[in-house]
Write a structure and sequence with these properties.
The chain is mainly α. The chain contains 13 helices and no strands.
Length: 342
């Protein structure tokens, strides 16, 4: 019990300290331009977390981050490196959008379910390629998934500029999805039913990772693959399963983002950096724990949504938030307290 408390405390310090240091250095930069860092940070958090509209917008933006964070967490927990979450999300979002645009005359519920299912399927199929190469040929999954990200990006760029381009649009985009495929927004905020779907997925993954045989096997494989095999686990099968689950979560994130926010695929669909890349930071910040991923997603989304208010109420450029985010990534790479082998 004492060892578990020490490990928990060490993990908490390794998570909180990077955030504190990032905000500290960001505060020094804000002071250097003659502004009050405490006032700036208060505006940042107040407008994104402590007003009803701001909180709902933050939860809306956190929805895809919860899913991409979970997609990373489940593989990283097992020392698998699925760096293809961004590509899986893009593929799921693209074809969910095509399904939403070209399928007509359907009831809203059926249309939404089909679009989400298409997104999940696309993410799983994308993840299947590196999973098979890993299991059958022992190919490094990190390299394969990284390269496939760029490959799928070029394929989708070709499809968006040619085959599926909306000729009535003044820029490269696919047709807008049908209204029956859109998630309705809650009042004046951006929050939709997609957030509830993300929370349901998080609850399922929490049970899987913390209270199921598969969760125990994921942890065992992550700590020692050879021991897991010696204990009778079918490690190759579990690797396939984890990659497919990760791909499904990523594809669902893309489909939900399409149906609740973008409504059409553009070349800047996922932003820069993309939501899949942001998911890696979320997983690290959350310690690869589902509850940690939830907190990290909301915190990260608050930074994103609150940054727009900085320019309105202070003279601090919103880019200061990007600097803080970069510093968080930098400090997360440092283990201030090393885990001792038990």
């Amino acid at each position: 019990m004492k060892v578990n408390k020490v490990k928990y405390l060490n993990g908490l310090i390794n998570t909180v300290l990077p955030v504190f240091l990032a905000f500290l250095i960001g505060g020094i930069a804000i002071l250097a331009i003659g502004e009050n860092p405490l006032k700036t940070y208060w505006i940042l958090m107040e407008k994104s977390l402590f007003t009803s509209k701001g909180l709902m917008n933050t939860l809306h933006y956190a929805s895809p981050l919860i899913l991409t964070g979970l997609a990373i967490a489940i593989t990283f927990k097992a020392n698998l490196y699925n760096m293809g979450v961004e590509g899986q999300m893009l593929l799921g979002g693209f074809f969910a959008g095509i399904t939403g645009a070209y399928l007509t005359g359907m009831s809203p519920l059926v249309h939404k379910v089909i679009c989400l299912a298409v997104g999940v399927l696309c993410g799983m199929l994308f993840a299947l390629v590196p999973a098979l190469l890993k299991v059958k040929c022992n190919v490094n999954e990190m390299v394969v998934t990284l390269m496939l990200n760029y490959a799928v990006l070029k394929v989708l760029e070709y499809l968006a500029t040619g085959v599926f381009r909306d000729l009535g649009s003044g820029y490269v985009a696919t047709p807008t999805i049908q209204e029956s495929a859109m998630f309705n927004r809650s009042g004046a905020s951006s929050l939709t039913m997609f957030f509830i779907i993300a929370i349901i997925c998080l609850a399922i993954m929490y049970v899987v990772m913390k209270h199921s045989k598969l969760g125990y096997e994921i942890t065992a494989i992550g700590k020692n693959t050879e021991f897991a095999e010696a204990a009778g686990m079918n490690v190759k099968r579990k690797i396939m399963m984890m990659m497919m689950i990760s791909g499904a979560l990523s594809g669902l994130a893309g489909a939900g983002y399409m149906m609740s926010e973008q409504f059409k695929f553009t070349l800047g669909f996922s932003g820069s950096p993309g939501l899949g890349w942001d998911g890696m930071l979320i997983a690290l910040l959350g310690g690869h724990n589902p509850l940690g991923v939830l907190v990290a997603s909301i915190f990260y989304a608050a930074l994103k949504t609150g940054s727009d208010n900085i320019n309105l109420y202070t003279n601090v450029p919103k880019e200061i938030v990007a600097m803080v985010q970069g510093l968080i990534i930098l400090f997360l790479a440092v283990k201030f307290i090393k885990r001792r082998a038990s």
